[in-house]
Structures are given as structure tokens and as C-alpha cells.
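Structure in, sequence out. Go:
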């Protein structure tokens, strides 16, 4: 079974492995945004934006 979560950037579905753990980094395949799993419960995952250290987004 695969859990899906919504990308906060582009609204695409992100597939979360059902053995994902809190703190795991997942990436949106549509816009390449990275998110950290902030909580995971039966069939439902919450994501928060991952801290990106390497890239400068210009702000
Ligand atoms: Zn996205």
C-alpha cells in the first residue's frame, strides 16, 4: 500500500512509502520540492518543507 500526500508547492500527489518514518525526506516528482515527513498515522501523512541547505532560491 502506498500513501499519498499533496505537494504544497504544485498540488501534485507525492507517493510516500508505507514504511516511511518521521523525518524522512520525500521529493515531489513534479516540481522537485523536498518535504520532510512531520507526522505519519494510519494512511495519512503530514509534510513540512525540508530545509534546503545547498540551494539558494534568491530570497
Ligand atoms: Zn510539487
Amino acid at each position: 500500500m502506498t500513501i499519498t500526500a499533496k505537494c504544497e508547492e504544485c498540488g501534485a500527489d507525492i507517493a510516500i512509502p508505507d514504511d516511511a518514518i518521521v523525518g524522512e525526506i520525500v521529493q515531489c516528482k513534479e516540481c522537485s520540492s523536498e518535504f520532510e515527513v512531520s507526522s505519519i498515522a494510519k494512511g495519512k501523512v503530514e509534510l513540512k518543507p525540508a530545509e534546503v541547505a545547498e540551494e539558494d532560491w534568491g530570497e
